Structure formats: structure tokens, C-alpha cells
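I am still learning, so would you mind making up any protein sequence you like and the C-alpha cells describing how it folds?
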Amino acid sequence: IVIWAAWLGLNVFLFVYYFLLFDRDKKFYYTRVLLGCCRRTMRKQLDHNLTFHKLVAYAIALFTAVHIIAHLCNFEWYNDSQQAADGSLSSILSNLHQDEESNKWLNSIHTNSTTPAYVTFTTIPGLTGVIITVALILMVTSSMEFIRRSSFEVFWYTHHLFIIYFAGLVIHGIAGLVRGQTAENLNKHNPEHCVQDPTHWGRNNTDSHCEEPEFESIPAESWQWVLTPILLYVFERVLRFWRSRQRVVVTKAVVHPSKVLELQMHKKGFSMEVGQYIFINCPSVSHLEWHPFTLTSAPEEDDFSVHIQAAGDWTENLIDTFQQQKPKTPRINVDGPFGTASEDVFQYEVAMLVGAGIGVTPFASVLKSIWYKFQHADQHLKTKKIYFYWLCRDTGAFAWFNDLLASLEQEMEKSGKTGFLNYRLFLTGWDNSVAGQAAFNFDNDTDVVTGLKQKTSFGRPMWSNMFSAVATAHPRSVVGVFLCGPQALAKSLQKCCHQYSSLDPRKVKFYFNKENF
């Protein structure tokens, strides 16, 4: 009962996961619309889809272990019942119909020489059980963070063993190893009544309700639980394959300092929102690998762009492919866009954007969109103030983003909204010569590191001071905090959000949002 209840709960979760949330085009776009009238905290749960995915995986692994242990215990009990000759109820049930060909037996172990290894490797339930257990172990172990970070390809390819897992799951129970009393026989043998005196069971018994019990295989039902998710997944894969085969034109490719590749592309019918991401495939590098990258373009632009930093074999090979002066530009396939938490940035009156290294990419899209809104004097912009913080290890990382920030500075001056954007740049890695040069030129109008009006800060920000200043400046506002960066930074920001949020609903409240891929 425990196993089946857990299995039912897991499949309900999977059904909701695939059926309600499978719109990967806008990632829960329609669900967000349906929940538009609900509390912000409820809508934010949609951004924890990866956490939900992991919880379901852990639950499947846990109950798989319970399932295996239960079968091992059953096998030992069946084996003991087969060998017992003490006239006990289990012994009597085990020996019923063993010598007949009517297939009405209960105990699947018919001889004393049957071993667990024999049943495991000579029956359909045993073989499929071993296969899907091995597949599950490989998927779980290869999903560990250190494996994903060091060898993403191992994680990616091993995770596709779920195809074998579900195929084995569907046929796991077709042999009918688990058996139960037949419905017809229940009318002639009431277990609650007849269990009192099993020695008098038989067809010649004057009590018609105590004939010998007859058993049959319980039909396999696992396919009923996985059919809907499988069909939805196949539909989604077909849709994504069709969409990824649409022609993509690379209009511009630039390699910036710190080995960052900027790709500007055009695709017919492509539509996006701020902060979304796409999956990119380059057949020249790998025909099978797809990797997610945040869009750095704005929805108002005709082309869309990404910035790709060298962070592994695939990205390094991609950058090298574009650096080679070939007569023909390498082909790029694109799937998406997909939604993220950053889509909600304009739903807050005040927003704090925090990017670490290449994690600034979703906020490049946000700031570009703001620039266009200023250009067109958009009166529907709900956001009144944006605080932007960018943490980088080296000065070269600032280079490709400087032009955008400089344009924003000029546009805000023209529109009389110089206080709309407050940005701070933090250099977390430097040498004494850079620090000395910055100190020597501190009185200049522009920063010596970036060339912007805002001076670069050396070291890491004091987040307590930042949050305290924002809470003081906006005592009655709802502040959205958006991060694209490491988990350690996420914990610090989340802690500050709780610390500086007022218990009074009429006062300042910080909501934490983090990009998840």
C-alpha cells in the first residue's frame, strides 16, 4: 500500500509537471497568465521547476530502493513458505495448485533450488528491474554538481537513459509475477471467513465459501501512469526539433576580451521577452550537444544576440570555430526562447539586478529594453528605479558592456531621468598597478578602468549596506532582487532579503529571484 500510494503521488506530480508546465516556448507563460491574479509568492514557485525536478528524482530513487527491498523480502518469504512443511497458512497457500497446469498458483517459486539470482536474471521482471535500476543509478550519480561542472557531456548523455528507464518500467510487470485471488473465486472463498481453518479447504467441503483459493496474475498498470507524460514529452521533442530546424542567419560574430563570443542572429518569427534564454547547437562542434545561453538583446530589436564565455570544451571549440577565418560562417541551430525569473523585472517598482561575471547577460537585455523604452517615451513602464551591481574578476570583462552603460547614461540625461538607474561595478580581482592608477586618476570625470562616469569599486560589495540603503530610500515599495551568479552569492542575497523585509505589509518587502538552468 505504501509503495503504490507513493507511486500514485509521484505520477500525479509528473502529470502536473508535464501537462500544466510543458509549454517550454515561454516556460510556464500560460500558467503565469492563469496565476496573474494570485499572490506573487505563488507565481514565483514556477521558477523553482528544477528544484521540483530534483525532488521528484530523489523520491523516485528512494521508493525504488523501498520497492527492491520489498521484493527481496517477499522472495525470502516465498522461499521459506515453499520449503516449510509445518502446515502453516503460508505453507498451505504456497503448495496450492503447484502440480497443476491451470496457472492458479500463488507462489512463483516451485522448487527448493530456486535462488534470487536465478529469478533476477531469467525472468522479465528480474531483468527489467536490474536494467532500470542501473539506469537510475547512472542518472542520479552523473547528476551530481561536480560531474555536471567538470564533464557536462557525461551528465547530458547519461541523463538520456531515462528512455531505457521508462521502456523497462512499462514492460516490468507484464510477466504477472505478482498475483492475487481471482474475482470469481472470491465469491466461493471469503478470506476473512476461511482463514480460520485452512486445513478444511476443498471442493468437497460442505461450506461453499471455503473452496480452495485460486489466483491469477495482476495485470501490469505502469503504462497507464507514464503514458500521458511520455506522449507529452514526444510531442514537445517533435515541436522542438521542428523549431530547431528553422534557418538561423548569423549576422555578426565578435570575439571580445576575456574570450567572450558575441553572436547576433536573425530567425524568422522569433519573439522574445527580457531575460529569456535559448539553446544553441553548432554542428561543426557537435551534432548532439545543445547548451543554454541567455539572450543579451532587447525585445525591441530585430536581431537577437548572446554572449558566450569560454567555460569548457564545447564553448572553447565554438569560439575557436568562429575565430578561424573560414569562407563560410558555421551553421547555428537555435531552440527557444525559454522563460526565466528575469521576465518579471518590470513588474516591480524597484529592482535590484546583481550579475557576477558573464552572469550579467540577462540584465544586458533588461537595460537595453529600458534604453528603447526611454527612446519611445514609454508611459506604461511600472518600474521607477533600478539598482544594478556587476561583479567581475578582471578588467577585460567590462569591455563589451561599457558601450551599453555609456548609452544609457546619455539617454537618461536627455530624458531627465538621471536617477532612474544606479549602477555599481565591482572589480574582485586586481593587481597593485591597476589600483594605483585608479587612485591616481580618481578626480577625473570618467573612471580609468571602464571610461564611465561611475567609478569602479575594488573588492566585494557590502550587501548589508546596499540593502539598508535601498530599504531607507524606498520604505513602502516592493523590491525585486534578481541574481544571475553562484550559489554562495545567492545565499547572501536571500539572507539579506529576509533580514531587510518588513513584517508590516505596508512597508518595504524584498523578493528574491534567481536564474536557474
Residues 113 and 294 are 61 Å apart (CA to CA). The two ends are 36 Å apart (CA to CA). The mean pLDDT is 78.
